[in-house]
Amino acid sequence: MTKPRRIYSIDVFRGMTIALMILVNNPGSWSHVYAPLLHAKWHGCTLTDLVFPFFLFIVGASMRFAFVRWHHYGSKEFYIHVFWRTFSIFMAGLLLNAFPFIRQNWDWTTFRIMGVLQRIALAYGLASIIAIRFDFKQIIQIISGILLAYWALLWFGSSGNPYEVESNFVRIFDMWILGENHLWSGFGLQFDPEGLLSTFPSVGTVLLGYLAGGMIQTSKQYSDCAKRMAIFGFGLTIIGFIWGFIFPINKALWTSSYVLFTGGIALLVLSALTWIIDGKQWKKPFWIFEVFGTNSLFIFVGSGLWAKTILKIKFTLEENTISGYGYLYQTIFQPFAGDLNGSLLFALSHVLGWWFILYWLYRKKIFIKL
Prior knowledge:
By secondary structure, the chain is mainly α. Helices cover 63% and strands 2% of the residues. It has 13 helices and two strands. It has helices spanning 8-25, 51-66, 76-98, 116-133, 136-157, 169-177, 199-217, 222-243, 256-279, 287-292, 296-312, 324-337, 339-363, and strands spanning 314-317, 320-323. A two-stranded antiparallel ribbon has the order 1-2. Strand 1 and strand 2 (320-323) form a beta hairpin. Helix 1 (8-25) crosses helix 9, helix 3 (76-98) packs antiparallel against helix 4 and helix 7 (199-217) packs parallel to helix 9. The longest helix has 25 residues, at 339-363. The two termini are 21 Å apart.
């Protein structure tokens, strides 16, 4: 069996994405966060809104090299591998939703089914089947079909404005299939930004990454590959931006314009890293992110468990009961740097802390895979 080849620029890109994920997920106070480190309230795209599509894009790029071991043929072994990987990631997401497992008055009727890991699992599983069965030209046609079909579903299936939180077809579909009480309620009503139907276009994000991985794998010169990726990425970004005027760029709905816009930016970032790292061999400045790029799913689960744990721990501060999360922010970071910068410093401390954990695993050659 052929051993998958590793591309340093993809590892670094993954590491940068993981570092940004930890940064935006762990502010000291959600009331004090710099605007780029918050999601767009609905339509639009901030720096934070790039994290999830970047990760899915990298999943796709990595798939191209991982699938070499099957010689691009969908054998029984391949489908078994994809099934168990999809299943294990999905189950990890369910367990993360259920943590800390023991709760008073536990009510399974309101348990959230979907989530970030669940979307990664399903998008990976579906994209893997498509990638192993079709060539590049056919995959481009499939991506186009997915994005156009999704646009039609939202337009014709809505109960009002097709792109508003109350009336969009994504919400209607997920309530039909999953049940209203099993959806996220962070928008003030039951709507899941990582729901079932909106996972459909996220497959396109993974496949764009797979195409980028193929461009790198089949290229003889990294500099030429970087140029071609940059042109491709610039074109997708412009198309996604223009499409956004009639089909708004929206992460929560994972709109087709959002797929192209964020996929294009991901291609531009990867093209720059490919040119600098793989082409010019300037690797040393990026070794910090190489460490972040290892054990990526482990760090997602670990950081999520940590945040949930310190939120559950209670402390008394000035006769008020607050979480361990709030206690750390209010007693260490906020007095030192103020509200806004203290909140940012709190997040940066998490980035640094998790880097040391990953570095230790990296030095010990411990790689935890789901």
